[in-house]
Amino acid sequence: MQFIKDNILCIFLVMLGLLAWFVTIGARIESRKTGRFVSGVPGIGGILIIIGFLISPVKWLALIGLLDIDMWYFFVKVVPDMIRAEKAEKNYIPPEDLEGGKVLEYSLHNKEYEEITIEREYPYADELHSINRYVIIQRDGKYILLKTEHNIRVIERIECGTSEECKEHASSKAKWIKL
Question: Please, which residues have CB within 8 angstroms of residue 173's CB and are 6 or more apart in sequence?
Answer without folding.
Answer: 110, 113
